[in-house]
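INFO batch 0412 | record 1 of 1 | parsing
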Amino acid sequence: MHLGKIVRRFFVPPFWVTLHFAVGSRCMVSPRAEVELSPLLKIGKGTQVGSFTKIKASDGPMEIGTNVSIGTNCFLSSDTGGVMIGDDCMISPNVTIVGNNYRYDRLDIPISAQEKTSEGIRIGCDVWIGAGVAILDGSEIGDGVIIAPNSVVSKSIPARSIVQGDPARVIFTRR
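INFO prediction complete | emitting tokens
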């Protein structure tokens, strides 16, 4: 791990992170959230990050739009493919958004020792993500989508769809 990443992760006080985003981005990050200060992280004006949420953007770009609400105890992590979240999204508590994966095709090497891959995640504007949802690497979610609680998204979701399940499937289209 690089020295800069260690310092940002372990030695920057939470109140400093809250102050940094309040002044710099005019958004509210809870002092109880764990958000790494990284040049790869951009948070839009009016966004709110809840307590006990972890945002890791030290390995790839992460852009969070304006007026986004991120609930308590969420985990957002980007890698080289990046994570992009549009404006006016609502992310309920306990949501996991992970922008990387591991290869697992070689049986002679443990999975943890195989290379990571990262296609990235794109979430459109005005998306409502229910509690306990997992959004996996390679997912693309269109504008105006509603994702029912405890769903697992691992592919593309068309705009204005309502999806649920594991894997998430379209159950209705908003008109």
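INFO post-check: The CA atoms of residues 50 and 72 lie 5 Å apart.
INFO record closed
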